[in-house]
Automatic annotation (TrEMBL):
Residues 10-69 form the RNA polymerase III subunit RPC82-related helix-turn-helix domain. DNA-dependent RNA polymerase catalyzes the transcription of DNA into RNA using the four ribonucleoside triphosphates as substrates. Specific core component of RNA polymerase III which synthesizes small RNAs, such as 5S rRNA and tRNAs. Component of the RNA polymerase III (Pol III) complex consisting of 17 subunits. It comes from Podospora anserina (strain S / ATCC MYA-4624 / DSM 980 / FGSC 10383). InterPro entries: POLR3C_WHD (IPR055207), RNA_pol_III_RPC82-rel_HTH (IPR013197), RNA_pol_III_Rpc82_C (IPR008806), RPC3 (IPR039748), WH-like_DNA-bd_sf (IPR036388). Residues 154-164 have a biased composition (Basic and acidic residues). GO terms for molecular function: single-stranded DNA binding. This is DNA-directed RNA polymerase III subunit RPC3. It holds the Pfam family WHD_POLR3C. GO terms for cellular component: RNA polymerase III complex. One of its GO terms (biological process) is DNA-templated transcription.
Length: 647
């Protein structure tokens, strides 16, 4: 991950928001200086040894640091883990995803592990056992008050007077996990879903240090420690990739043990003896896969409607069982031969039909089309290979280039596309002949939704075999990133700006005269719009001298669109927006510090309506409203960052 100044500042503010000033100062020093020893940190931060040990221990506990010991060096080197620090901002989304997928009890376990950081299984069991024992004691105390004589008959009088009727306990106060057996089931579920993984000896190594160590070890196996020849270099690259994959699989040791021993046997082994020393942590890579599924479901709902999006979500859930991360690593996931690459994950129609809820009405969202307008061959076409990345760019660019002329063709009689779902072209969807309604079975309706997704211009789905479906995430996310960039440009500089960007994307580098002829705009308006987009970093210029001796007055300039630079510019602005939100929130806390200190008091907490004065309640309500708005703004901006950078 490219660590820019705004990203570093946002990560530092996030750590300060959650863990306080001490660890955030250490983290900021590591970001500014780079990898450092504890002696160097002491000089940079001005902290004593005790403060540094406390801060480093907290950061390591929450997996926010990498550390490495060079051969022959007496000191450890510490380095900031920016990816995990940024993922702290996604804690709310992750917990919501876990609750919707695995239930409220699983959310409680995940929240506990996020708060405590790296957790031994035995410690987690002890913590929940203490909770359960405490709740049991409270229940026994309440029961004793209701039946003081222990004869099963409630006492209705106290000192000769009627006893007040006890207030019924809310079901919300009951523990979500009432026994260790329930905790076991939840941990197995989360480990099987790979949301929890084990911690091993190289978990704290940075990717660069781990790669350097593996390369050094493999080079020693060659004569003289040198790799010579093309064949030897290819073999060396494969060995490095294989070693990295083996190291990566170590974190899934808990899941492998669970699969090898079976569920019932694992319940006995996981928490007994030395097995309880297993250390677990949150697997943010898998969490991002699940969050990507939710985002793709949202895109599908915008394009095709709710029913088709639910079908798509179920298919993504089946696919994701065998997908551990959103993006492949170019070194770790390198295979010299195509036959060595893992086969793409596919889902059959029958598998999807089995997991769909029977309450989902698949007939909703399907249009009616005349039979003579349906091309069965085109609809049922099977694409065995994924599309090339260039295919998506060319198709979208061509469509965008033509879009500029569509707005001006008001007088032309254009035949509308056959309406499938919510105005989307779906020529294969039919419920009858010549508009006559006809009953179709559930499997046929499911296939119609899948064919709609496979025919989308974004490429949500690929019909890869007979009754087999898969998702090509790389070209799909490339198309969605392009759509998000266009949407951001349109919101910033208007519709004319995004039209110019689409034309530059399709045509390449153009001078102003060529742009004016293609865009059909006046020169003054076009120059003004190009200058505005250049200010925001959406388009770039290249000077081309007319003569061998460069002279600005005799040169002409070409305008072009650089997708990578535009993406980096949007990310930079997104980080700054989130930084500003955290700074405003900190200012509001200082302003209402008196009220916030009141609600932390033990005699006020939980009884704010009764204990606080009216003016304090109004200030508290206003602060909580602004806090929700600011935190919600951060989450919305993060949705864009995730699509552009992580998914």
């Amino acid at each position: 991950m490219l660590v820019t100044a705004p990203l570093a500042e946002f990560c530092t503010l996030t750590i300060d928001e959650i863990y306080g000033e001490l660890p955030s100062r250490i983290y900021a020093s590591l970001l500014m200086r780079g990898r450092s020893t504890i002696q160097q940190l002491a000089g940079d931060t001005g902290m004593n040894a005790r403060q540094l040990r406390h801060g480093l221990a907290l950061l390591l506990q929450h997996n926010l640091l990498h550390y490495h010991l060079d051969a022959g060096s007496p000191h450890y080197f510490y380095e900031a883990n920016v990816e995990h620090a940024y993922n702290l901002a996604r804690t709310g989304k992750i917990l919501q995803m876990v609750e919707e997928t695995h239930g409220a009890a699983a959310k409680d376990v995940m929240q506990t592990i996020i708060l405590t950081g790296l957790t031994r299984v035995g410690d987690l069991v002890d913590a929940y056992q203490n909770r359960i024992d405490r709740m049991n004691r409270i229940k026994e105390k309440l029961k004793a008050e209701e039946d003081p004589f222990g004869n099963g008959v409630e006492s209705h009088e106290v000192n000769g007077e009627p006893k007040p009727k006890p207030t019924p306990q809310s079901s919300k106060s009951d523990p979500l996990i009432s026994s260790i057996a329930d905790l076991n089931k939840i941990i197995y579920k989360l480990v099987e879903a790979e949301l929890l993984i084990g911690v091993h000896k190289t978990s704290f190594e940075s990717p660069e240090d781990l790669l350097a160590t593996i390369e050094s070890d493999i080079q020693k196996t060659y004569p003289g420690g040198e790799v010579k020849g093309n064949k030897a270099k290819a073999e060396y690259k494969d060995k490095v990739a294989e070693a990295l994959r083996k190291n990566r699989s170590e974190s899934r040791s808990l899941k492998r043990k669970l699969e090898q021993n079976g569920l019932s046997a694992k319940r006995r082994k996981l928490f007994d003896g030395a097995a309880s020393a297993n250390v677990m942590c949150i697997n943010y890579e898998k969490c991002l896969v699940e969050l990507r599924n939710r985002r793709l479901m949202h895109y599908a709902e915008e394009a095709f409607g709710q029913t088709t999006s639910w079908v798509y979500a179920s298919l993504l859930n089946l696919l994701s069982k065998d997908i551990s991360r959103c993006r492949d690593d170019p070194i770790t996931d390198h295979y010299e031969k195509d036959e060595e690459k893992p086969a793409p994950v596919v889902v059959t129609t029958s598998q999807l039909l089995d997991v769909l809820k029977t309450s989902l009405d698949l007939s909703v969202g399907l249009g009616q089309v005349d039979a003579d307008k349906i091309s069965v061959t085109a609809a049922e076409k099977i694409a065995e290979l994924p599309p090339r990345k260039k295919f998506f760019i060319d198709v979208q660019a061509e469509a965008d280039a033509n879009a500029s002329s569509d707005d001006d063709d008001e007088g032309e009689d254009v035949k509308p596309a056959t309406n499938g779902v919510n105005g989307v072209n779906g020529t294969h969807v039919t419920n009858g002949v010549n508009g006559t309604a006809k009953r179709v079975d559930r499997r046929t309706q499911l296939r119609q939704h899948l064919l709609l997704l496979s025919e989308s211009t974004q490429g949500f789905l690929r019909h890869c075999g007979a009754e087999e479906w898969t998702v090509d995430f790389v070209p799909l996310m490339a198309a969605l990133r392009q759509a998000e960039i266009d949407a951001t440009i349109e919101n910033t500089v208007g519709r004319e700006g995004v039209r110019l960007v689409r034309m530059l994307r399709a045509k390449g580098k153009l001078d102003e005269k060529a742009i004016m002829s293609v865009a059909l705009m006046r020169k003054a308006d076009m120059s003004k719009k190009l200058a505005e987009m250049h200010k925001y970093g959406f388009v770039q210029t290249q000077e081309v001298p007319r003569e061998a001796k460069a002279d600005v007055k005799k040169s002409f300039f070409l305008w072009y669109f650089d997708g990578t630079m535009a993406l980096e510019r949007i990310l930079d602005v997104s980080y700054k927006t989130m930084i500003h939100s955290l700074q405003v929130l900190d200012t509001l806390r200082e302003k209402d510090q008196h009220v916030l200190s009141l609600i932390k008091r033990s005699d006020v907490k939980g009884q704010e309506d009764d204990k606080l004065r009216k003016i304090h309640k109004e200030k508290l309500t206003q602060f909580l409203k602004l806090e929700r708005m600011l935190l919600g703004q951060i989450q919305r901006v993060d949705d864009l960052v995730a699509v552009l950078r992580d998914y």
